[in-house]
């Protein structure tokens, strides 16, 4: 009986919250670049996630560099409603060395979690790949996973991977050389450890690269 009462209260709260959500329509001047559907709150109904290039320029020069934003939308009685809006997780459209060659961010929903992948070149030889995963819990979306790969065409391939829910951290560094005559090549590194993350970061408080922690024994810090 108590469980049924708690369930009824939860459904009532969810219903009242849904009534307060604003209707969604594509903002004027926005360009849709990615979309995915999937269940994010385990209610058996799919949410819709859409990424846009906005009409807001990041730089005021002639280069096309626009702020990107995404919406998480609920379908309520056939009308899309804004559940969450975010413009802090995504890089702008002009990010990187060859922004005109960048693929749009990749988004997917698996196991009720939202993953966003962004790939760009930092120079003519280096590629940066970020994947961040968010899960809805305790009334909000939280960062639960970070995958950061930085690679050169032939000199190195660095991977930092973090599971914030379990605290598991993987550091993997492979080294080589673009110079066939190079004799001194740094040793590869592979380290796995558990790091206690006391609190999870809310999606709208997260910006890539503004968080860090020190790796014991390696004299280095991981940024995420």
SSE layout and pairings?
Elements (H helix, E strand, L loop, with lengths): L1 H18 L2 E2 L7 E8 L8 E11 L8 E11 L2 E8 L19 E5 L2 E9 L4 E12 L2 E13 L3 E8 L4 E8 L13 E6 L17 E4 L4 E4 L1
Antiparallel strand pairs: 1-5, 2-3, 3-4, 4-5, 6-7, 7-8, 8-9, 9-10, 10-11, 11-12, 13-14
How would you portray this structure in words?
The chain has one helix at residues 2-19; strands at 22-23, 31-38, 47-57, 66-76, 79-86, 106-110, 113-121, 126-137, 140-152, 156-163, 168-175, 189-194, 212-215, 220-223. With 224 residues, the protein is mainly β. The strands form 3 sheets. A 7-stranded antiparallel beta sheet has the order 6-7-8-9-10-11-12, with no helix packed on it. A hairpin with a 2-residue loop joins β6 (106-110) and β7 (113-121). Mean pLDDT is 91; it is low at 6-11.
Query: What does the main sheet amount to?
Result: 7 strands, antiparallel
| N-to-C series of helices and strands | HEEEEEEEEEEEEEE
Q: Per the principal axes of the C-alpha atoms, what is the gross shape?
A: globular
The helix fraction, in percent, is under 10%
**Distance from first to last alpha carbon:** 45 Å
For the biggest β-sheet, the strand order reads: 6-7-8-9-10-11-12
Relative strand content: over 45%
Q: Output the radius of gyration.
A: 21 Å
What is the total tally of β strands? 14
SSE-based structural type = mainly beta
Poorly predicted sequence stretches spanning 5 or more consecutive residues: 6-11
What is the tally of helical segments?
A: 1
Mean pLDDT, all residues: 91
């Amino acid at each position: 009986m108590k469980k049924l009462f708690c369930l009824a209260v939860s459904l009532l709260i969810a219903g009242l919250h849904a009534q307060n959500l604003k209707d969604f329509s594509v903002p004027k001047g926005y360009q849709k670049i990615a979309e995915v559907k999937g269940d994010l709150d385990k209610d058996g109904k799919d949410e819709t996630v859409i990424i846009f290039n906005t009409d807001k320029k990041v730089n005021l020069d002639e280069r096309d560099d626009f702020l990107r934003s995404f919406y998480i939308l609920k379908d309520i009685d056939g009308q899309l409603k804004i559940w969450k809006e975010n413009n802090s997780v995504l890089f702008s459209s002009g990010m990187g060395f060859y922004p005109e060659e960048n693929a749009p961010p990749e988004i997917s929903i698996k196991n009720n979690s939202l993953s966003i992948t962004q790939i760009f070149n930092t120079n003519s030889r280096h590629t940066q790949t970020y994947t961040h995963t968010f899960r809805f819990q305790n009334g909000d979306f939280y960062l639960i996973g970070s995958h950061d790969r930085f690679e050169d065409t032939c000199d190195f391939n660095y991977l930092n991977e973090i599971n914030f829910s379990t605290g598991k951290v993987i550091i993997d560094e492979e080294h080589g050389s673009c110079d066939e005559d190079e004799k001194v090549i740094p040793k590869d590194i592979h380290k796995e450890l558990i790091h206690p993350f006391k609190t999870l970061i809310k999606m709208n408080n997260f910006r890539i690269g503004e968080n860090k922690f020190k790796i014991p024994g390696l004299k280095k810090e991981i940024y995420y």
